[in-house]
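User: Hi! I have a protein structure encoded as tokens and I'd like to know what sequence might fold into it. I'm fairly new to this, so please keep things simple.
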């Protein structure tokens, strides 16, 4: 996909991009004029999905089912691998992804129905597998909290991943689940540089707030780890030792990493972002990414897409492994258990905790 020519689209305040690349699956494309793009508000749509658990068959992730109360993400992370999923909704993976958000108001009720079904085999549910379950609108809608309350009712294990410090609001529910060995939380941390984070992840919590969230969760007795993700070769990889040290000091009990993934059209969005924000370093960073991806910007093969390959990818892995070992940070938190799973009708008193 060809990049827009300078001057690049003006990025509205608090957004990751000002560009809406063409939807690869649509014949028509709408171009917003500059005045519309500059003041473009977030618009929320009702998602009428009648099921809530998405099944995953990828061998690269450690869960079979995931739950996403929202589609699209207002955090606006320019590198987000989930951006292409918005194209299936007839939106763009660019500015639309962070300004056209679908919400699932029936998510808690749909989850309860799924767990009540005799066909449900108790197992870990990932929250979220695609877009962040604690993006800004969650503060008002509380869909994620209500889903966690359902999971607590059934004691079904749940693994939470987020970039938001809002997760600490739900420490009470998470602590109840943790006492049954049924939850842990991972905080994604890309950089410790607040200015870089503001450009990369404009509406996500700043790095210091995420570290504060790690500490708050740990003090509440909730197993918490850090994902150093994504690692961006040539831009953030040098921060790995300091990120891991900060995570350990904050109370993280585990740490892992994932290499930057740039599926189309995220590759074009990221290139445009580099050209706009880091023009002098653009070619060096893209070159390092290609060194980890067999000469390309993306490699979707299972077993390769999360870690990359080649000498530079091995350098990142070796650096991470050495520092994590020194800090006594294993790759994984203790496994979750579904041993305490229960359905409300299993309680002869008819009471719910």
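Assistant: Happy to help. Inverse folding works backwards from shape to sequence: for each of the 353 positions I chose a residue that suits the local structure. Here it is:
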């Amino acid at each position: 996909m060809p990049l827009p020519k300078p001057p690049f689209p003006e990025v509205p305040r608090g957004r990751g991009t000002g560009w809406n690349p063409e939807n690869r699956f649509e014949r028509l494309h709408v171009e917003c004029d500059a005045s519309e793009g500059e003041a473009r508000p977030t618009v929320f749509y009702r998602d009428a999905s009648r099921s809530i658990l998405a099944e995953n068959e990828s061998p690269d992730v450690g869960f079979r089912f995931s739950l996403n109360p929202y589609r699209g993400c207002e955090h606006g992370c320019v590198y987000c691998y989930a951006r292409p999923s918005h194209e299936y909704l007839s939106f763009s993976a660019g500015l639309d992804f962070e300004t056209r958000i679908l919400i699932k108001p029936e998510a808690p009720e749909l989850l309860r129905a799924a767990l009540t079904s005799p066909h449900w085999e108790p197992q870990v549910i990932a929250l979220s597998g695609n877009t962040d379950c604690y993006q800004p609108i969650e503060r008002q809608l509380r869909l994620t909290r209500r889903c966690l309350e359902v999971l607590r009712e059934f004691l079904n294990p749940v693994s939470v991943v987020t970039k938001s410090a809002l997760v600490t609001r739900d420490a009470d529910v998470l602590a109840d689940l943790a006492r049954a060995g049924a939850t842990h939380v991972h905080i994604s941390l890309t950089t410790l540089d607040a200015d870089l984070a503001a450009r990369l992840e404009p509406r996500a919590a700043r790095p210091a707030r995420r570290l504060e969230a790690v500490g708050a969760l740990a003090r509440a007795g909730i197993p918490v780890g850090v994902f150093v993700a994504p690692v961006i070769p040539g831009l953030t990889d040098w921060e790995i030792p300091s990120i891991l040290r900060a995570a350990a000091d904050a109370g993280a009990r585990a740490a892992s990493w994932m290499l930057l993934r740039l599926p189309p059209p995220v590759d074009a969005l990221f290139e445009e972002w580099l050209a706009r924000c880091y023009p002098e370093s653009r070619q060096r960073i893209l070159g390092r990414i290609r060194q980890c991806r067999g000469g390309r910007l993306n490699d979707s093969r299972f077993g390769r897409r999360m870690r990359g390959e080649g000498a530079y990818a091995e350098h990142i892995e070796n650096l991470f492994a050495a520092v994590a070992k020194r800090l006594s940070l294993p790759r994984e938190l203790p496994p979750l258990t579904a041993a305490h799973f229960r359905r409300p009708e299993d309680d002869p008193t008819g009471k719910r905790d």
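A useful reference point when you look it over: Residues 348-353 have pLDDT under 50 and may be disordered. Feel free to ask if any position seems puzzling.
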